[in-house]
Amino acid sequence: MDMDCKTSADLVTRSLSGNASAQDEAQLRAHVAACPACAGLQRDLSRTWALMGSPPVLASTSPAPSLPAPRRIGSLWLVGAAAAAVLVVSAIAYMMSSPAAAPTPVNPIAKQAPAEESRPEQRREEERVQEVLTHIENEKPETPAPVPAPAPAPAPENKTVAAPEAPAPKPAAPETPERKEVVVKPPVPETRPVEKTAPAPVAPAPAPLPVVATVDHIEGEAFVLIDGKRGAVKSGHKLVAGDSLETSGKGGQAAVEFPDGTRLVLGADTVMDSIDTQGGKRISLKQGVLAAQVAKQPAGEPMIFVTHTAEARVLGTRLTLSVTPTSTRLEVREGRVRITRKDDNASAEVPADQFVVAGKGTSMIPKPAPSLRFALHETFERARWGGNWLQGGEANLGIRLASENGSLSIKTLQKPAQDLGGGKMPTEAGELARKAVQGVASVSSLSRKDWPRSAWLETRQTYAFSNETPLRIRTRSWNSQLDPDRIVWMALNHGVAGQGLSLERRGASLQLWVEGANAAVWSKDFASPQEWEAIELWVSKDLVVVRRNDDTLYSGANPLKIKAAGLSLGVNAKMELAQDEEVRYDDVDVLLSTKAELEEVSR
Amino acid sequence: MRTPSSPEEERRKRLRLKSGDPEAFAELFREHQPGILNYVHRLSGGNATLAEDVSQQVFLSFWTHRNDYDLEKPITPLLLTMARNAWLNAAKREEYRKTSELKEDGASQVDHGLERKELERAVERALAKLDEPVREVFILSRYHELKYSEIATMLGISVKTVEARLSRGLQELQKLLKDFL
Fold first, then answer.
1. CA-to-CA distance for A493 and A471, rounded, in angstroms?
2. How far off is chain A from B123, nearest CA to CA, in Å?
3. Which residues of A touch B48 (CB under 8 A)?
4. Nearest by CB to B33, which of A60, A74, A75?
5. How many residue pairs from chains A and B have C-beta atoms closer than 8 A?
6. Smallest CA–CA distance from A6 into chain B, residue
7. For the segment A426-458, what is each residue's pLDDT rounded down to a tens digit?
8. From the list B37, B56, B120, which residue is nearest A65 (CB)?
9. Chain A interface, best mutation among B14, B21, B56, B139, by max A CB count within 10 A
10. Cβ of B34 and A60 within 8 Å?
11. Secondary structure E strands in A210-352
12. Any residues with CB less than 8 A from the CB of A221 and at least 6 apart, and which?
């Protein structure tokens, strides 16, 4: 087939750019063979194409952005389907009398603007229960959480949702429909299906009350109020309409599951009363903190959370509700939620990523919510840091870096005594042997000088931070005077001169260094390290804060204007690490904080 | 920037992305970020600051809205489209023009120094001399290996136009670089 020279350039381009068909190629070849001009054109264009392949390539200096969505909660949503909703409700203990009659609480928090940052205690508790909720969910990923009731059957037998694998074992035969249980033990005119341990209250109710929910996990002590009497509750306890549930003590916790998969977690010292499901689930929170994952509710029957100042209706959203005696703050993560102020019935519909504070005289116009405090929560658990580390590798170090239950450990597997020789280790002191940990997103290294007592962990992932969302890195690790002279506890962009920042102990002082600098940015005597040190490093674009055992030791300008960093953590072993002995690195947390919190700790 | 991988592998990756697996995101980032970065860098005529910012923005935005995308379709054109839009938005903003001017000198000194080859400079200059619509098509084809049809979809122009621009661009480059051929 013949072809016009005019189309040669197009055809050559097509061929070079990989857009030519076999027919195009054949056509081009045939034409070029017969046309010296087009052969020359083809040659020139091909060379040009090749030349253009080597423009200066810009290498990235910026790392992967930290993910904006909460990771673990993210997986929760995957499991929980779009209809699931998480709710955190918290209330400061307050007078039980009616709101109008209640004397003004002395709680200083109540006087301030009800910003959540002003309630660190409460915030922590919210996170704790939220965490529990997430964990429960993660432990049963194969079961979609909000299983819609197969039929709108009355609550009692609707126990199709598998109970979460909580540590506390459930009583046997959880599959048995509740109604059957009631039938099986009919002698007493019971008002409720009762587990063996709880004394059956003899109430003159004519018909058995339907079970509305089951208590399926308890930590510490929990009580249920039955006819005004406080009785201890065990896992598996069935709650009926009107029941109250209380947790007691700092570590108290109770999880409650509804037949449709809706799950509540009560935090410490929390009182939830008059649980009901008539015409929609209704929970009244007297005090404390409560987190909830709410399955999609039937149309027209929202789940209602009542506090003394406000009411939130949930149909399938994700939100946080924080309550003080004078206000209720609602923050919505997904969907839309209507909040109504009881005082004047003023109401607002709050869309995703916005919040409203309903208090006396507050504006009910939703505003953009600050980023999630737990937007990034890296606990270094399980597989992320697991795996063998240099075990029997070329260096044959015989130490293992392991991660169990959220803590890291280095462990000797064999006596380290003779393993140093043979040139297997780096010969220069301080030279690093780097090795990727198998299948794990981290790089570890160690130096001969410190061997085998310290190890490095470096994240490949990098974390973006800003003034609004400072990065907070907290570790608790073993340290003692016997440790080597220099220990780097934490480093940002380790080893990158001018971009890295490290917090280390040199001799008897704690020092902050910029990588590659000649002098420490800051240094403080640190005469007697405790064996367990909790060290925190906070970094925003402008500020660096160092904290030790919850005391702020240093607060100063960020010497680097970096906005993102990879992290390194130094893990130290004791001087003498016996065979099979472990040194643990507990409580490693990396999270995004808030500006307000940073300001608080930097004072 | 395309690495050949099996359809099954691709499918698994997509699933992991959809499900919000941060590892999958990190992988995606590692694989595609250099391409996106350089795309914006070239597109903007060498603004490294803007390229960095835009590429970060693209991936964050992709992550945030990952459920809205049809991940059955090739991901490269999607990311490039996002980058292009982000660039168009960002380029309007004053701040970048300023930093761009500041960075321009510094970047070329730091990044390339005196040893930068004459050829590289010539290539860069030649690319910058192309008309923007032509340059854009050239970049997408040459450096991102997009097919004509993909470029056409992405830019909202016809395949014929894509071919015409690419062909024209290549011929112009040939003239600009004739000393090196």
1. 13
2. 6
3. 58
4. A60
5. 119
6. B167
7. 222 222 222 222 222 233 333 333 334 455 565
8. B56
9. B56
10. yes
11. 211-226, 229-232, 238-240, 244-257, 263-266, 271-276, 282-294, 303-306, 310-314, 318-324, 327-334, 337-341, 347-350
12. A232, A247, A248, A249, A252
The distance of A271 to chain B (nearest Cα, Å) reads 35
A71–B142 C-beta distance less than 8 A? no
Cβ contact A401:A408 at 8 Å: yes
Report the greatest alpha carbon distance in chain A: 108
A519's CB contacts (< 8 A; 6+ apart) are none
CB A301 within 8 A of CB A91: no
Give which of B131, B105, B109 is closest to B43, Cα–Cα. Answer: B131
For residue A39, give both structure tokens: 């052969």
**Cβ within 8 Å, pair B164-A59:** no
Q: Which residue has the higher pLDDT, B153 or A79?
A: B153
Q: Which residues of A326-342 are buried (b: 16+ CB within 10 A; e: fewer)?
A: bbbbbbbbbbebebbbe
Q: Which of A521, A571, A573, A579 is nearest to A546 (CA)?
A: A521
Q: Report pLDDT for A450.
A: 36
User: In terms of CA atoms, which chain B residue is nearest residue A439?
Assistant: B23
- Cβ–Cβ below 8 Å for B33 and A44: no
Query: Distance between CA atoms of A399 and A391, rounded to whole angstroms?
Result: 6
Collect all residues of chain B within an 8 Å Cβ-Cβ radius of residue A16: 170
For the ranges A9-18, A399-408, B25-34, B50-59, the maximum mean pLDDT occurs at: A9-18
Cβ contacts of A50 on chain B, cutoff 8 Å:
none
Name the nearest CA neighbour of B58 among B41, B37, B73, B31: B37
Residue type, A494: H
ipTM field: 0.71
Q: Are B42 and B137 in contact (CB under 8 A)?
A: no
pLDDT in tens, B4-23: 456 777 777 777 877 777 77
For residues B128 and B135, what is the distance between their CA atoms, to the nearest angstrom?
8
Asked if A69's CB is within 8 angstroms of B63's CB, the reply is: yes
User: CB under 8 Å to B98, separation ≥6 — which residues?
Assistant: none
Shortest CA gap B94–chain A (Å):
21
Structure tokens at B84: 């292009």
> How close B172 comes to chain A (CA, Å)?
10
CB atoms within 10 A of CB B42: 25
CA distance A9 to chain B (A): 6
How far is it, in rounded angstroms, from Cα A76 to Cα B76?
A: 28
Q: What is the b/e burial string over B63-97, where b = at least 16 CB atoms within 10 angstroms of the residue's CB?
A: beebeebebeeebbbbbbbbbbebbeebbeeeebe
User: How many other C-beta atoms lie within 10 A of the C-beta of residue A42?
Assistant: 21
- Residue B175 has phi, psi (to 5 degrees) of -65, -45
Is the pTM of the predicted complex or chain greater than 0.80?
no
Give B30 to chain A, closest Cα distance, Å. Answer: 8
Q: Do A45 and B42 touch (CB under 8 A)?
A: no
3 state SS of A20: coil
